[in-house]
Amino acid sequence: MADGTDTERQAKREYRQLLRLHEQILSQFARARDELLAPGTDALVKGIKGRTGSAPDLTELKTAVEEAIRALKLSQSSIEASVATDVATSHEVEGITNLPPYLQRFLAERAGQPGFSYEVVQDPVRGWIICWKEFTSRGTVRGYGQICERPYAWLED
To answer: Interior CA angle at 130 toward 119 and 104, to 5°?
Structure first.
């Protein structure tokens, strides 16, 4: 049974990596689309047309970028649907009913991993704080940190 849960954990981890990759590619396509639609690009095309008499046709390129963005979003939504069970079964911390969803997701993604330990405390200013450590198989600390519900609440406006 432990092998099945390890396989599930590995698959969910890979799905999350794939979603991060989708987000990176989507932002690159969005930047390319914005550059193609920018006034500077239109001015450049008009300048070329004024000097040479023919303008480069960017409509096919713009259409291809838009289609790629649509295809990427469709793929992303199907992956998110596959992972929806992971999000729906958020990690409940005993005694804490109002932990924000992003903190619940952080714990759900990591709490089952070997060597991961955490403590949840509440601060009157910063809200819920997750203090976590991750240990290697040899017992040395691989990483540690704190995640706050309101990390900048202590700053004065």
So the answer is: 105
**Per-residue pLDDT tens over the stretch 40-89:** 998 898 889 889 888 888 889 999 999 999 998 888 888 777 766 544 44
SS (H, E, C) the chain: CHHHHHHHHHHHHHHHHHHHHHHHHHHHHHHHHHHHHCHHHHHHHHHHHHHHCCCCCCHHHHHHHHHHHHHHHHHHHHHHHHHHHHHHCCCCECCECCCCHHHHHHHHHHCCCCCEEEEEEEECCCEEEEEEEEECCCCCEEEEEEEECCCCCCCCC
Counted domains in the chain: 2
* Domain termination site, one of 43, 59, 88: 88
Band (3; pLDDT cuts 50, 70, 90) = low
In a domain, 157, yes or no: no
pLDDT category at 22 given cuts 50, 70, 90 is confident
**Residue 141 belongs to what domain range?**
101-148
One domain, residues 82 and 15: yes
